[in-house]
Structure prediction request, 171 residues.
Amino acid sequence: MRQMLKHSFEAVSLLTTTNGMLDVTIIPALDQPDWLVPSGLILSIDEYSEYTQFYEWQQQRIAVFHMLPSHQTPDKMVILEGNTSAHRIALQTSGEVRQLQARISDVKDVELPEHFIKSNSNIDTVHERVQEEVVLSYLFQTVMIDNMLYLVPDLDKIAHQLVDLDGYFAH
Prediction:
């Protein structure tokens, strides 16, 4: 049997570069810094205004990670490629999704400010499988670009928590 190679969403994916530049997309987040994800992982950005746990995309049921609480109206679903088609995830958010190209030398590793680390009791997006309101549960790295804080999420961890623990997706 041939071994399946797994790519990683983590920093290696983020730092895939051309001529020393990073191609990332900024995903708006609430009560935390906006997220940076590799632009190459984005399969689609769809208009979607209902809060949901699953999203039907191209006849596939995709697990959703919420970037805002359920009492706020989302307007976008950002579909991200996964290690397998079953491990694709959707980020549900609201606001402008922006592209960013930055020099690697302009990206500074920083500590996540303390006020983002604590649990925010105003956010009711807790799902038993992923503690979406606890930033440290999915944080891979905090970076600063042009004096703006961003989170580099551990997308691999999120995908596996959302997908593998759900009986619908289990293989």
User: Anything to note?
Assistant: The helical segments are 11-14, 114-117, 155-164. Residues 1-14, 120-130, 167-171 have pLDDT under 50 and may be disordered. The longest strand covers residues 21-27. DSSP finds three helices and twelve strands in the chain.
